[in-house]
Structure formats: structure tokens, C-alpha cells
Amino acid sequence: MVDFSIEPEFQEKLDWMSDFVANRIRPLEYVYDYDIDAAYDVGNRGLRKVVRQLQDEVKAQGMWAAHLPPHLGGQGFGAVKLTYINEHFGGSSFGPVVFGCQGPDSGNSEILAMFGTDEQKKTYLEPLLANDVFSCYAMTEPQGGSDPTNFRTRAVRDGDDWVITGEKWFASNANHAAFMIVMCVTDPEAPPHGRATMFIVPTDAPGFEVVRNVGLWGDSPGSGGHPWIRFNGVRVPDTARLGPVGEGFKVAQSRLGGGRLHHAQRTVGHVKHMLDLMGERALSRESYGEVIAQKQAVQHDLARSFIEYQQFRLLVLYTAWMFDQRAEHGREGRKMISAVKAAMAKIAQDVTVRAVHLHGSIGVSNVMRFGQYMALALHEGMADGVTELHLSSVARALLRDYEPAQGNFPTEVLFERKAWAARQLQPVLDRVGVTFEESRGTVDVLPVSPPWRPPSLTAPAG
């Protein structure tokens, strides 16, 4: 049975979290520049002390690393409860770090837990879970777009080592990471999804280069947390390999589904934040003698946003429930993940645009953060696969459940359905002794006739 209920004990945790995020974490965003004073920057010792203090309070509440199972230091809450947790971070950039569930570290920790050797777990996973270091996931390439089979970054075997050459793009957090997990082509002649392998690369390895820092709209040129990086013959030992050679895509899939769901869960919170801003603005701004909340167009925008928010939230909760049933890697689970991903991009963009529009000139000014919100909303349409690919994936999954109609007409064409209905109902009418005419039924039965053939183009002989 599908169940989204919240136990009273967990609701108390959520109530504490709501107040903690609003009054202890959100203030960080107005005092510290997230782009410059990033919460991921271990070199900013002053801010790290502040973050550590808040993290200790989270741990004391038993809410640390909620995405992880207990044996890895998490709480084992499951995906549905994680939805209720993650939606609190929708308007909070520092929230995930303070609660120990920030990306890309959350996905990387899952990869290391599932595929890492004992040595890799000790060297990389343990300090990552302790939040002593941060990591990066380098998969996207400048020319690659949404086609992961188009990678060019190569890892070539050289004795007991691998030599990595190539470039990665939008490698989020690479400028603050101690290490990264990198997807490299190891056999370009193999089938498309058997060409790549995952490697762990320390960022202090000789030959590793940050070409330039890249940000979103509003970030200063040359700044931002999504760098363009280059591997200039970086050498790593075979012990840095994650999983078997050629199974990089299999390793990647272990994190992508969960990562997409985490994004969607936080987008629920983002949309709610936009809705809250719209509601306040509608009741605060006057135009032509009345608050704009009285304007029908404003009411419609608010209503549409609320309806879409509730629909999306339920879609995310249902997909999370499927994760809790261990169904995320099945056909239905993959379909729902793609559906959530596509819906996430659209609602984030649509509701953010409405919120900007409702705020008028102040909405496009730099005294509010709508520019950042809009950039993030548009980014949701590209991260982890573009929306169009996920829509196609959903369509292909849906079409597997259907078959083409028999014959030249759709199954529901009326004259054929009436004939079918008459056959189905005739035994019942026979048992009660009535006819279709007596029961006022209308039956449209076509006369049986020889199949139509085109006239001969040549006259018969004689």
C-alpha cells in the first residue's frame, strides 16, 4: 500500500528542522557570498567553524546524513522521509552542507560505499562522510552534451597505472574538492555503454588543471563552482579504479537515479518558496486602488502555481515510495525517475517566471535573488540529462505497455465497439429474455460483404 504518512516522532524532527533552517541556516546566505565563501571551501577556517557548530546541532538531533544507511553513519530514513527533509532545502544553499547531504558528495559516497575497495573507503569515503573533505563528480564534457557515449577523455593502461588525458566541463565543486570521481573512455572500440571506466583522481595529482572557474548567471566572470578542468596525462594506479573496466556506466547509474530524486525533492521546496514570495507580494502591492491579489490574472497565477506544486510534490513522493520498495532500477522505476526529472525542470522554470513577473521591476533587480533562482531553474532542465531525453524515455517506457490496433481503425471506433459490446452483452440478454430493441439499446452492426478490390485496369479479353 502506498503510504506517505508521517509518524508523530518524525514530525517533531521536521518541526525542529523547519525552525532550524529558517532561523539558523538561512541567515548564512545573507551574510556570506555562497560563490566566494563557499561552504565547501575547507580553506575558509572561520566559516568552517560556524558550519561545524551547526552540523553538531544537526547530529545531536539525529538528522545527519539522512540519505545514508545506518552502517555508513546515516539514519536509514528511506526516500519518502528524505523527501520531507530535502524539501526544506529548496530555498537554502547552505542547508545540504549543514545536514551532510550535499551533492555531489552524497552520490559519490554511495558509489564508494557500493563499489569501493576497503582501501578506497578508508582513504576517501571515511573523511568524506566525516565532512573533513569534499569531492567532485566529473562526467560531462564540453562537446559531450547529453550524449554520454560521446566522451573523449581517455584513460590508457600503462603497466600498473592508467594515464588520463582530456577535459571535463561543469565539474561542480572541483575547485574545492580533495578528490574526484572521473568517467574515462578505456576501450573506444567497445559497444557504447561498455567503453568507460570510473577512476578516483586526487586534485593534487600532477597534470590536473582547473582551466577556469565557471558559474551561473549573476556570478562574476572567472568565478563559480562548476569549473572547466583538464587532465594533462594524469597518472593514477589501477587501485584508483572504481568497479570493473568497462562498467563505468553501471557504476554511474547507481548514483544518477538517487541524485535526480534528491534534486526533485529540493525543487519541491524551491517551488514552495516561490509560492510563498508570490503570496506575500500579491497582498502587499497595490495597483489602481486595490491590492493585486484582487486581480484575476494574479489569482490565476497563484492558483496554477499551487496546483502544480501539489501535483509535483505527490509525483515526487510516489517515486520516493518506489525507491523504498527497491523498485528504482526496474522499468517502472526508471520511467518514474525520468518523469520526475522532466516535471521538475518545467515547474521550476514556470513558477519562478511567475514569481519574477509578479514582483515587477524589483523582481528583475539585483536587490532580490530571482536571477540566481532563475538560473538554477533553467539548470534543472539540463543537469542529469536534458528534459527532452527524459520525456523520450518516459514515452518509450509507456509505449511498451501498448500494442497497435488490429485492422485499419482505432479500437474505440464506435461501429466496431458497438458490435463488440453486442457480442459481450448478448448472453446476458438471452438469460433475461429481452432484446436490444426492447431494452432501448442501439447496435450498429455492419453488413458482412466481400472484401473490396480495385477495378481491373485492363478490359477482360473477348
How would you characterize this protein structure?
- There is one protein chain.
- With 462 residues, this protein is an alpha+beta fold.
- 46% of the residues lie in helices and 11% in strands.
- The chain contains twelve helices and ten strands.
- The chain has helices at residues 8-31, 45-60, 79-86, 95-98, 105-115, 118-129, 248-284, 296-324, 331-359, 370-379, 387-399, 414-432, and strands at 135-138, 154-158, 161-168, 179-185, 196-202, 208-212, 228-237, 241-242, 286-287, 290-291.
- Strand 2 and strand 3 form a beta hairpin.
- The longest helix is centred in the middle third of the chain and has 37 residues, at 248-284.
- It is globular.
- The mean pLDDT is 89.
Q: Give average pLDDT, whole number.
A: 89
Helix run count:
12
Report the structural category: alpha+beta
**Helix content range:** 40-55%
H-E order:
HHHHHHEEEEEEEEHEEHHHHH
What general form does the structure show? globular
Radius of gyration, Cα only, in angstroms?
28 Å
Number of DSSP-assigned strands: 10
Report the biggest beta sheet as strand number plus sense, adding barrel if it closes. 4 strands, mixed
Q: How far apart are the termini?
A: 78 Å
Order of adjacent strands in the largest pleated sheet: 1-4-5-8
Estimated share of beta-strand residues: 5-15%
Enumerate the spans where pLDDT stays under 50 for 5 or more consecutive residues: none
Summary, kept brief:
With 462 residues, the chain is of the alpha+beta class.
